[in-house]
Write a structure and sequence with these properties.
The chain has 3 domains: about 5-250, P-loop containing nucleotide triphosphate hydrolases (Rossmann fold); about 255-345 and about 430-520, Rossmann fold (3-Layer(aba) Sandwich); about 355-425, no CATH class. The protein is built from 19 helices and 24 strands. Strand 19 (about 375) and strand 20 (about 380) form a beta hairpin. The chain is globular. The chain starts with 6 loop residues before the first helix and ends with a helix. The model is unreliable at about 1-10 (pLDDT under 50).
Length: about 525
């Protein structure tokens, strides 16, 4: 219970945003949103991709100007934020998912960038190094002010961003998906630092799709949906069912969709047979069968070889041994184009670097795999047909975009993933390999992707899903093949006699045999 002396400080929020609206041509991104944040709290901001979180924070940081009628108060006083410099003067700092440091400069140079102390016309580097040493020590940094940022890990660079914000007297710190590129150990260190900053009185706005992080860190949580404010929950009120319902507008029941019937009597014949596939390094003689109309998950701990196995099947990596058969026919797959031509497609786990062309439009991305078929006489593209195809994909997959002319780079993660899926579907595949299909997307987009996977299975396609999220694997898979250190340890579900649950999957993933896993399950 707070001491009486603390009550007045907490009675007036350090930040209030009221009636915040923002419209772009053809899109109303925010509609009367509100947010109230206290000093000395971690305030989570949640919502689907496209809910308006980033737009709201860009208004707070001065990157966007809100529509008329908006009110922003700091310490109870109305303020005008007319640009990034104005926001910084008010004590507002934002640490984006893509860090904004200059890697060719030292830690001290980055912390002081634009505010360098001088002796006459010369930058006083000794003063810079001395001036940030205390802050780095307070944050527990193991690097020096003179260390080049290029030599730091992602977690250490994040610490430099925080040090820069504190050095600039930030009182309100926004952190946008800060753990995306961090290991579990680095994440633990970041959480300890956030808790320290909270104890020091900073107001921290924490944006994340990961509910476990929200439960651990947040004192309160505000939710946006479709550009509108839904509500704020106190820490004691936080639970998965309530948050999911606020974010997507429905209960968590039915979140994982599995309406297709892949029981032994219902599933089709073996569509893909993989035998003793190996690359001589990470994958060591792996095999499985996939039936038409079945969702088969490949699970395992990080480093188990799941992705490498999938890339060998698809021809993205060189296979040294083994065979791949499609509907009983042995395939000669030497490159991805060979697999695609035979009806096997692969959704990469890194959609931005390996899947999408972010500076191209939705329509161009959707049509990339089938542009050849649109060419009249081998030279002229049928642009009308390509446009109709893109519009059809937008409707079929529920891609939230005004039209096919919009650049893919401007879309949310979930909508980008659906664009990439639509491109694969245009090739009319018999087998789909989906590597981490819901990574980096919000709960609403996840639910929509699960529906697409279910519809593919119901249509008779064979679907392979590689996922690190066990609840996802358990929720959507008919069978699960479990890998460990490049070897298939066994399977659960289907006709194995072993139930699909977390205990049985983890038993196999950590080296316990399928028979022992079944005994544990009994």
């Amino acid at each position: 219970m707070p001491l009486p002396s603390e009550a007045p400080a907490r009675a007036t929020p350090i930040l209030e945003m009221r009636a915040i609206s923002k419209s772009f041509p053809g899109v109303r991104a925010l509609n009367g949103v509100e947010l109230s944040v206290r000093a000395g709290e971690v305030h989570a901001l949640m919502g689907e991709n496209g809910a308006g979180k980033s737009t709201l924070m860009k208004i707070l940081s001065g990157a966007y100007t809100p529509d008329a009628g908006a009110v922003i108060r700091i310490d109870g006083q109305p303020v005008a934020i007319d640009g990034p410099l104005s926001a910084k003067r008010l004590g507002i700092a934002v640490i984006y998912q893509e860090l904004s440091l200059s890697p060719n400069l030292t830690v001290a140079e980055n912390i002081y960038l634009g505010r360098e102390p001088r002796k006459g016309p010369i930058i006083d580097r000794a003063a810079m190094e001395k001036g940030c040493a205390d802050i780095l020590a307070r944050l527990g940094a193991s690097f020096r002010p003179t260390t080049p940022v290029a030599d730091l890990s992602i977690a250490e660079r994040q610490m430099v961003e925080i040090a820069r914000a504190i050095h600039a007297n930030a009182r309100i710190l926004v952190m946008d998906e800060p753990t995306t590129a961090l290991s579990s150990r680095e994440t633990d260190s970041l959480f300890a630092l956030i808790k320290q900053l909270r104890a020091d009185g900073l107001a921290i706005i924490y944006i994340s799709h990961r509910m476990a992080e929200v439960y651990e860190l947040s004192d309160r949580c505000s939710v946006l949906r479709d550009g509108s404010y839904v509500g704020t929950l106190e820490r004691a009120e936080l639970n998965a069912e309530r948050l999911v319902k606020m974010m997507v507008g429905r209960d968590i029941a039915g979140f994982y969709t599995k309406d297709h019937d892949a029981g032994a009597a219902a599933r089709g014949p073996v569509v893909l047979s993989v035998r003793d596939v190996a690359d001589g390094r990470r994958v060591k003689g792996c095999s499985f069968d996939l039936h038409a109309g079945e969702v088969l998950a490949i699970a395992g701990l990080v480093g188990s070889g799941r992705t490498e196995f999938a890339r060998l099947i698809f021809g993205a990596e060189r296979r040294l041994a083994g065979a791949v058969e499609l509907a009983g026919k042995t395939l000669d797959i030497r490159k991805p184009a060979d697999a695609i031509a035979q009806g096997i497609v692969y959704l990469t786990e890194d959609r931005k670097a390996q899947g999408l062309f972010l500076d191209m439009s939705v329509g161009e991305n959707v049509n990339l795999a089938v542009f050849k078929s649109d060419a009249a006489g081998g030279a002229v593209l049928d642009l009308a047909r390509a446009r109709d195809r893109a519009i059809g994909a937008i409707k079929a997959l529920g891609i939230r975009v005004p039209g096919p002319h919009i650049n893919v780079g401007a879309l949310s993660g979930g909508n980008q993933q659906k664009v990439l899926l639509s491109r694969l579907l245009e090739t009319k595949p018999k087998v789909l390999i989906l590597d981490e299909p819901t990574r980096g997307v919000d709960v609403g987009a996840k639910s929509e992707i699960y529906k697409i996977i279910d519809e593919l299975a119901r249509s008779g396609a064979g679907v392979i899903v590689i996922s690190s999220e066990l609840p996802e694997v358990i929720g959507i898979a008919d069978r699960v093949v479990v890998m460990r250190e490049g070897v298939v340890m066994g399977e659960v579900g289907g006709g194995s006699g072993i139930a699909i649950n977390q205990e049985n999957i983890m038993a196999l993933a950590t080296g316990i045999s399928a028979r022992d896993a079944a005994r544990q399950s009994a």
